[in-house]
Structures are given as structure tokens and as C-alpha cells.
Amino acid sequence: MRKSDYDSIFNEIYKKDKKMKEDIISYKEIKKMLCDIRKNKAKTTKKYSKEREVAELYALATGIIACAMHFSADSMKEKYKKDNTVYFSLLTNMSNDILGIINLIDNGFEFQAKILIRNLMELMYTLLVTMINEEKRIEYFESADLGNSYAVWQKNFKMSKLNEELAKYEETVFDKELQQEMKEQRRNMYQYYSSYVHNDFLSMVMGCHSIDKKDNPDDSEFYYNLWGMYNNESKEILETVNKLIWIHLMYFRYIISKSVYYNRSNYISKENISLWNSGFLIIFMIEKMLKRIYKN
Questions:
Q1: For the segment 250-293, what is each residue's pLDDT rounded down to a tens digit?
Q2: Which of 190, 191, 168, 187 is nearest to 179 (CA)?
Q3: Is 233 helix (H, G, I), strand (E, B) or coil?
Q4: For residue 42, which phi and psi values (nearest 5 degrees)?
Q5: Pick from 115, 11, 86: nearest CA to 262
Q6: Which are the contacts of 280, defined by CB distance < 8 A and separation ≥ 6?
């Protein structure tokens, strides 16, 4: 904003009331407030550096695996390129979502980070479902050309449909009790984060605050969080993100180990094997870190 713009608009609105200049925000004050907002560092009552590092490493690992798929696309057989595009695009956006959540948290925007977590969940589950179900993967890819993306989403990829497909897959690897637990956990977590996307009144009001949660909920402290002044919930938010990614990658690793879902010889070559290995090396390092963090 230029001072000439400020003066012009001010004079146009308040030309009959020159006294208003003493009461209303000045050009200098606007500039100072914008400068303060840009320089603001969110305050927290809890350290979250370990959780932050784990999330960053997850973003790095999923990004490297996405690169392994993306960079090998040109040399890949034509019939596998469509599937590969689905996989690397979902993984790329997952990696970027994780970094987006970290950046929002660092800057005190916890409400906005929770909205992005729901998107991350949808990307994760869409990736797993498209790997498990070839028919749904083809429909997903072709929806762009056919212009029926919303219909395909309603049919295959809204959360209830994703949950059903994942539950069917879990029948092949888990006992009934664990199957039910995973299904309910996904549904409950999705509903919770959807309340932020839909601006449910309670979630919206709570989202104006950063909460320092105590062992006794009655003792919790609420900090009004205009312009990202606080990030007291960052540790809990990142713990949730890291748990989500850990579960997703456990499924992902199992799926790509089964040729019925993912024939690795079609996608892994001497040109990209080092990227695949690097991505999974980082994942194994994270698992060691997590054991150490939660042991202490």
C-alpha cells in the first residue's frame, strides 16, 4: 500500500470529518502492524522440536519416493505410466502437505493446520485405495478426461467409500477386532478434522485460541490467537500427523511388497533404485528415532 493511496481513500471517505484523522488508524500504524505480523514468532508453552524433526523427515522420505516414481516415468512402459502418475502425484502432495502443516504450526496457525490434516488423510487413503483396487485407480485417472471427477469421488473416494475399501483390505491382514478398531479410528479422526473444515461453531470458536492442555482439563489455559501469536498445541498436532503417516507407510510398504498390488519390476529400475532405497532408509531411521523418543 502506498501512502498516496491511503491519503486518497481517507480523504474521499472522511473529507467532511477531519477530526476522524485523530481517531482512525494512520498509514504509519498500518505499516507498523503489518511489519509486526510478518516478524511475529509464535509463543509456546511446550517444546516440539523432536516431533517437528520426525515430520520433516517423513516429508523428505515421501518426497524422495515420489521423485523415484516421477523421474522414471519417461523410461517406463506406456501401460504403467498412468498408474505411476497417480502414485507420484499423491505422494508429492502428501509430502507438501506435511511441510505445509509444519509451517502453519511454526507460525501459530493451528486451526489452519488441522484443516490441512484432513486433506493429508484423504491423500493417504486415496493412495492406498488406488494401489489396492485397479478399477478405482483407472476411474480416478480417467476422470480428468471424462470430466466426471465429482461422480467418481462420490462413487469411490469420499471418506466412507475409502474407509470401506481399506476395511476390506484389512480383512486380509488383521483379526476382526483390529479391523473394527482401525475402521472406527479412521472415521472418528476424519469427523474430528472435518469439523474444522466445515467451521462447526465449537471448533471454529476453539480455533481462535491456542490451548495449553493440562492433565486436568479444567486447568487448561486458553490463549486468544489472532495472527498466530501462540502455538501451544503444536506438539499434539504433530504427534497426530506422525502417527497418521507411520500407519500409512506401514500399509504402503506391505502393499508394494505384494506383486498382486504392485509389481515392483514395472516401476523400479537401475535409474531410480537409489532414490527408492534412500526414501526407505530415512523411514527406517525415523522408526528408530520414534522408539528412542517414546522410550524417554
A1: 999 999 999 899 988 888 888 889 999 999 999 999 998 888 77
A2: 168
A3: coil
A4: -60, 140
A5: 86
A6: 61, 65, 253
